[in-house]
Specification:
Elements (H helix, E strand, L loop, with lengths): L1 E2 L3 E2 L13 H4 L6 H8 L5 H19 L4 E2 L8 H8 L3 H6 L1 H10 L3 E2 L5 E7 L9 E6 L23 H9 L7 H11 L4 H6 L9 E5 L2 E5 L12 E5 L2 E6 L6 H14 E7 L5 H4 L2 H8 L2 E4 L9 E2 L5 E4 L2 E7 L8 E5 L4 E5 L13 H12 L6 E3 L8 H24 L5 H8 L8 H17 L3 E4 L2 E4 L2
Parallel strand pairs: 10-11, 11-12, 12-13, 17-18
Antiparallel strand pairs: 1-2, 3-4, 5-6, 7-8, 8-9, 9-10, 14-15, 15-16, 16-17, 19-20
Helix pairs in contact: 2-3, 7-8, 8-10, 13-14, 15-16
The structure holds zinc ion.
Length: about 475
């Protein structure tokens, strides 16, 4: 529907107190507790059912569509909706008390059980349009036709979500961002029957509430380096930060926006480091939410604001302290969640496998810095949450220290070239992996060189002094 200066939106409107009334509840198939369960939100049961009823009422007011059934249990007669009710739908639907009275007089009950909740979106405060909306998917009632509101609706369209997205993309149709977000999620599952069956989870995006302050959305980018995928964290209540939007996948982006909306208004997007699997989702998400992107590196195109080492970001009951933690990547930040004594560790620590290290000297300093914080939990960029952060960091430090000791030992034994050292140290590792091992040995040698403990002449290495 065209609304607010020519933009297209779904039919809908504000929840009126009378939508939550007993009179309205009496005209609904769903009871209040059931409505609350289906909505899946922490709101009062009368408000939950009120939202379902308001959705159907607004649909009737703005589009003349009535999703209800009569006393026989059969859907409301479409001919009657068209011919008898249509002239008054805008006035009747405008006023909840009048709407409830109308339903009672006509012996109609709202088919609230057909509405599938499709999430909630809240716009950030600096957005020009304040927007806190729940969305529902409903079937088009058989035999009924759209009768637009005579003054509020200037133009209406009945098209698929995919087509709407295409038109919005081609700039042939102006669609506000919250509507766009919902369209993106719907585009993959445009049929009501499929949505009903899938209970509105089109493609399974794994979401885990990890603590009162933290939700994790698993990005759909599994791989050798990513494991199951990148962990995107949503932190805070009422006001939230999103850490590492990973990929530009429409279903995932919509899910991140929806889960963030459950916690509150998104204030900022924080980036641990500029690797593609941590920033791939920035463009669609930042555009959708209109929020700033903050990271350590200032040269990167996507960064609106740079974060300095030690800077504290207070948001929605969470205090995030940024630590510059190079090693895996030069621009790497970890965020300490002070309230939990936990760390969002990006790619410094992995929930599985080993971490790829760019600069071992810096990486070891980073590990030591994190270890000194005695972290309870580590929220890694990939893999499951680590509940004993101290033990994990000790394990990492010990593993690298042991390797360093082996390299020093090999040098002392007169092995002065990397391939020979690899053969000696990795004797029990298949030769196919020796290229990877060589990279690791070389990074140890470079670290020792930085520390002045070894020197080299071309390919030949020796202990310093
Ligand atoms: Zn990385």
């Amino acid at each position: 529907m065209a609304f607010m200066g020519g933009t297209f939106v779904f039919p809908g409107g504000a929840l009126d107190e009378a939508d939550t009334s007993d009179a309205m509840a009496a005209r609904s198939v769903l009871g209040r507790d059931e409505a609350r369960t289906r909505l899946g939100e922490n709101v009062a049961a009368d408000v939950a059912l009120g939202l379902f009823c308001a959705g159907l009422r607004e649909l009737y007011e703005e589009a003349g569509l009535l999703i209800a059934h009569g006393e026989s249990g059969r859907a409301v007669d479409p001919a009657k909706v068209r011919e008898v009710y249509a002239p008054h739908h805008a006035e009747v639907g405008h006023d909840p008390s009048r709407f409830a009275a109308f339903l009672e007089e006509e012996g109609l009950t709202l088919s609230t059980e057909l509405l599938v909740p499709h999430g909630r979106l809240i716009t950030p405060e600096r957005s020009p349009i304040r927007f806190d909306a729940r969305f529902f998917v409903a079937p088009m009632p058989d035999g009924q036709a759209v009768v637009p509101h005579p003054t509020e609706v200037h133009e209406w369209l009945w098209i698929t979500p995919g087509e709407a997205l295409q038109r919005a993309h081609d700039k042939k149709m102006d669609v506000p961002i919250p509507t766009l977000a919902i369209l993106q999620g719907l585009a993959e599952t445009p049929r009501y029957e499929d949505i009903l069956q899938g209970r509105h989870e089109q493609r399974a995006i794994e979401v885990t509430e990890l603590s009162p302050l933290v939700t994790c959305v698993l990005a759909p980018n599994p791989g050798l380096m990513e494991g199951a995928g990148t962990n995107t964290y949503i932190v805070g209540n009422d006001e939230v930060a999103i850490i590492d939007p990973a990929v530009a996948d429409a279903v995932y982006i919509e899910r991140v926006a929806r889960e963030a909306g459950k916690r509150g208004v998104v204030k900022t997007i924080l980036i641990t480091h500029g690797h593609i699997d941590h920033i791939g989702g920035i463009a669609p998400l930042a555009e959708q939410m209109g929020v700033e992107v903050a990271a350590f590196a200032s040269e990167a195109q996507f960064v609106d604001r740079t974060i300095a080492d030690g800077e504290t970001i207070a948001i929605g009951g969470a205090t995030l302290r940024a630590l510059h933690t190079p090693g895996h990547a030069p621009d790497h930040l970890c965020f300490v969640l002070e309230e939990e004594q936990s760390i969002f560790a990006g790619d410094v620590v992995a929930g599985f496998g080993t971490v790829v290290v760019g600069n071992l000297h810096e990486y070891m300093a980073t590990l030591a810095r994190l270890r000194a914080l005695d972290p309870v939990r580590i929220y890694p960029g990939h893999g499951p949450v680590i509940d004993d952060g101290v033990a994990k960091l000790d394990e990492y430090i010990e593993h690298r220290t042991e390797r360093e000791r082996q390299v020093l030992e090999a040098l002392a034994a007169g092995l002065d070239e990397v391939p020979a050292m690899v053969k000696h140290i990795y004797a029990d590792v298949p030769e196919a992996l020796h290229i990877v091992a060589a990279r690791s040995v070389l990074s140890h040698l470079e670290k020792l060189e930085t520390e002045g403990r070894v020197t080299h002449d071309g390919e030949r290495w020796e202990l310093a002094g």
